[in-house]
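User: Small ask, check this?
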Amino acid sequence: MQPPDDAPRAKPIGGLKQWLAFAGLRLCGWAPDGDPPALAKYVIVAAPHTAFADAFWMLLFAVYFGVRVSWLVRESTVRGPFGWWLRRLGAIPVDRDRPADLVARLTEAFRTRDRMLLAIAPEGTRARRTHWKSGFYRVARSAGVPICLTYLDYARRRAGFGPCFRTSASVAADMDRVRAFYAGVCGKVPGQFTTPRLREEESVEESADVA
């Protein structure tokens, strides 16, 4: 599940937290497969996302790999008594009523932070959709950081980091690479997995037809 690419990889650093995370994963039948890039900043594609449990496994694998992951949550989620704990874990509150400036805010966060590994679930919901949301792609391109594909394969009970690459001039070519990677990955609810495809690809195809 780890095709060759130009990103160096970081081996997990042994420690009590890592050992406990590994023991918990093995007890539940999971095995790590593919080390994280040894880079300070990149956008993580978290897929497939077909069940609520995906977030739990993502965080447990993050502990095992020794990476601090940031992810987006509804602003209302961090207003409760556990809001401080979620922020400490890496949650970034998002105002869903003001999505227009989100890419700019995240781009600025990448610019000002020394380290930032931002996990985004492009499916956006656990229900099947017609397209992936393109936020992960636009943020990576705007911030000038690589995209790293990660996966949770419930069929093989394996998860980890796959290829890491920078966006190119061709959205379709980049997404072909994404589709190839996830072609053999099975989510917890296979029928709810959304095929990796962006609406931006259709815009490019329509322009080409007109030309």
The CA atoms of residues 23 and 142 lie 39 Å apart. The chain has one domain: 39-210. The first helix runs from residue 16 to 27. Residues 39-210 form one domain.
